[in-house]
Amino acid sequence: MHHRRLLSAVSILGLATSTALAALQIVPGGTWTASNGDHLNAHGAGVIRVNSTFYLIGEDKSQGSSFLAVNCYSSVDLVQWKYEGALLSRTGTSGDLGPNRIIERPKVIYNDQTRKYVMWMHVDSSNYGDAKVGVATSDTVCGGKYEYKGSFRPLGMESRDMGLFKDDDGKAYLLTEDRKNGLRINPLSPDYLSISGSTSTHLFPTAIESPALLKLSSSGTGRYYIFGSHLTGWDPNDNVYATATSLSGPWSDWQIFADKGSNTYASQTTFVLDYGGGNVMYMGDRWKSKNLQTSSYIWLPLEISGTKVTMNNRGSWVPNAGTGGGTWAASPAETSYEGEAQGKYAGGAKEVSCSKCSGGKAAGYIGGTGGTNGSVTISGIQSNGGEGAVTTLQIRYVNGDTGPRYAAVSVNGGSPQKVAFEGTAGEVGVSSVVVRGLRQGSGNTIVVSGWEGGGWGPDVDRVVVPVQ
Ligand SMILES: *[C@@H]1O[C@H](CO)[C@@H](O)[C@H](O)[C@H]1NC(C)=O
Ligand SMILES: *[C@@H]1O[C@H](CO)[C@@H](O)[C@H](O)[C@H]1NC(C)=O
């Protein structure tokens, strides 16, 4: 069905434009290199859209679980992310934002009356004993540091995972997991800086964390959908949703929306984004508790019809957000090129065995130290995206290190771009990268080599290229 809509868009817009857009893919679960050359570091994130830009705001986990920073990235297409900077950073020797503190699930909404961007976050001690929320504000969404206002327990209750929701009427709500009683929807004051009154709008007497709330309006009536996870620590479970036509209820029973037993495709809800055009995207974290920095993003389209919500797993998909966007689509057909079998080696790179790689082999010794610069060149790559196509490549790889490795990826002799490859802990991982300048036909060449001063690159199992 989605393919059919895409095809009609193709005939209206003309082939070159629409195929270029159609090739921009989200690759759930992979290393996702941002404009700064590193894996997106915005875990437990939320998104706020300002004008036509999406701002992704989440936790920096590059040094483990303790608070380091709340980062912001911007994008117009949900695929290419520009690092905007840290909105909050660890400060001093004590206090909420000091060393060995927990700051999780930052979420930002805009207050039309005060004209402030308001951030709420979970604030805790390292043993999760404080169980509070914190508030910070800024005049710009991601133009600089937020002013931290302090922390408290909402309605005097423990508060751990939280979410934030701004309704169409300008009223906003804190979603908070109160360990003793359940999940609460608490109304915010008109300036969004505190809880209004002394009672919750609704209390779900169920142990649900990582809440996210969505409202869809159709034919004048709105319906709310709340999503969340059961409490299983860093490990994923089958996340659930409930729906209602009023925030105060009655709410439906909790039901699963991903395949039963899949543990929500090994992820935990953090946000649900309505990005327009009838597109709603689930945003989850695939936490890697032993190496949090390598945690990845499971973003998938939600299919919502009345009270029914479902979500299928996909290796990649096309969100079609932004200019000329439309309805999301399944990925086009893809072709794989084996690093070791179809590649040409230079600079000391060579075939290595890799038990989990396709064919049991990979192209190894990419990059290097002390002046070596191993590279693998893969030629004969087919693209039907027209001249100069912009396409997401998937590089399947292995990195046995704890920290990231980097490579320079160059297409048809163009300037190389820095791509990150997070540690894969013995598995084959995927790193996605948007490249420009593919040619129509089979005359495309991709070179993967060492990034300047970047040491060894990943072992390249194969490169996956959308055909169109
Ligand atoms: C959004 O657009 C308005 C009106 O043009 C402008 O005043 C505002 O600065 C823009 N916001 C951002 C974050 O660019
Ligand atoms: C390796 O070669 C590529 C070009 O193929 C270049 O972009 C990169 O900077 C080189 N890396 C090192 C470490 O010299």
Automatic annotation (TrEMBL):
The keyword Hydrolase applies. The lineage of its organism: Eukaryota, Fungi, Dikarya, Ascomycota, Pezizomycotina. Keywords: Glycosidase, Hydrolase, Signal. Gene3D superfamilies: Galactose-binding domain-like, Glycosyl hydrolase domain, family 43. It comes from Neurospora tetraspora. GO terms for biological process: carbohydrate metabolic process. Belongs to the glycosyl hydrolase 43 family. One of its GO terms (molecular function) is hydrolase activity, hydrolyzing O-glycosyl compounds. The keyword Hydrolase applies. Residues 1-22 form the signal peptide. It holds the Pfam family Glyco_hydro_43. InterPro entries: Glyco_hydro_43 (IPR006710), Glyco_hydro_beta-prop_sf (IPR023296). This is Glycosyl hydrolase.
